[in-house]
Amino acid sequence: MKEASYYIKQNGKVQCLLCPHKCIISEGKRGSCRVRKNENGQLISENYGQVCSLHFDPIEKKPLYHFFPGKTIFSVGSVGCNLHCKFCQNWEISQTGVEEYPNLNYYTPEEIVNMAKERKDNFGIAYTYNEPAVWYEFMLDIAKPAKLQGLKNVIVTNGYINPEPLEELIPYMDAFSIDLKALSEDFYRKFTSSGLEPVLNTLKTIKKYGKHFEITNLVITDTNDNVKEFSRMVDWLTNELGKDTVLHISRYFPTYKMNKEATSVSKLRQLFEIASNKLNYVYIGNIRTGEGQNTFCHECNHLVINRVGYFTEASGLDNTGKCIHCGKQILSES
Ligand code: SF4
Q1: Which atom of ligand 1 approaches the CA of 32 most closely?
Q2: Which atom of ligand 1 is nearest to the CA of 6?
Q3: Whole-prediction pTM value?
Q4: Which ligand 1 atom lies nearest to the CA of residue 134?
Q5: What pLDDT, in 10s, does the model give residues 132-148?
Q6: Alpha-helix residue ranges (DSSP H) falling in the chain
Q7: What is the CATH number of domain 50-293?
């Protein structure tokens, strides 16, 4: 436990300012994320140091395809989330708090950094599994020394965070994997208990700071798979973030409170075609056929990264991430 950053005190209550919910929390109660609590008039981060998952994962699993392809990243997560998506694939850890979840182990930031450095083929630390924004203080306490010791920091996030804490975090992060669930305020309200606008602002801010980011859109049957709506989202990405924005179109499977059928492969193919007409790098995730996985240079059309499952071969790139055929920069330069 640690005192939280970004809150104000108001007559025994506290108001958390970390994310756009701006929860006003009475004594002994928690915010909507279940992991920030008013204890004696102080806002406490209850999940500070509380780790539920530690794994060495392929970076492709985050998913990040244009950032150190084929490399391993030490991935850590806790419990809690500021969104309540009805289709959450990690709901067992995201929709719970520290007291209710039995499988947490306490680590210090130094222990996490040391574990990350133990494996020689590991290049960084990814904050993932639950929503890292609600692990803010612990994440920063790891990210700062990790960066000083030459590790890269990666965050996998829903992007629902206020501008001030985001701007404090950005200098320590090297890459962002961000969910954009739909370009619809209505969808965000109805299915995630949050709002769209702050997520769009987060995307624009990360772009403004020149950080590497990739976007994942989970396509849910009869929910956010409307072709017109999807095209509008692709247009927004193209116009606001640029044609080189990497988009992962991910297949949904029934889970948690959502029982629509799994997204059909034909629907994913259709949306892949639409997105590929506007954006240079579009991928399909969560399907077994392996299609929509490889990277082709948008300039000369050569295959530059071949992916089979989590086996990745970037033989079409030089060591600065440029296409060996035409010199186009494909990977992030960070
Ligand atoms: S981080 Fe948690 S407590 Fe703070 S405003 Fe968001 S949901 Fe509420």
Answers
A1: 7
A2: 4
A3: 0.96
A4: 1
A5: 999 999 999 999 999 99
A6: 91-94, 109-118, 136-148, 163-169, 185-192, 197-208, 227-236, 265-276
A7: 3.20.20.70
Q: Are 4 and 44 in contact (CB under 8 A)?
A: yes
Task: State pLDDT tens for residues 270-324.
Answer: 999 999 999 999 999 988 887 899 999 999 999 999 999 889 999 999 999 999 9
**Ligand 1 centre from 83 Cα, in Å?**
9
Domain boundaries, the chain: 2-45, 50-293
Token reading at 311: 């086996």
Bond before 254 cis per omega within 30 degrees: no
Nearest to 240 by CA among 208, 194, 275: 208
Angle separating helix axes 109-118 and 136-148, nearest 10 degrees: 50
- pLDDT above 70: residue 84: yes
CA distance 274 to 285: 16
Quickly tell me which residue has 């030459």 as its tokens. 150
Pocket of ligand 1 (CB under 6 A): 16, 18-19, 21-23, 31-33, 36, 82, 134
Phi/psi at 145 (nearest 5 deg)? -65, -30
Mean per-residue pLDDT of the chain? 96
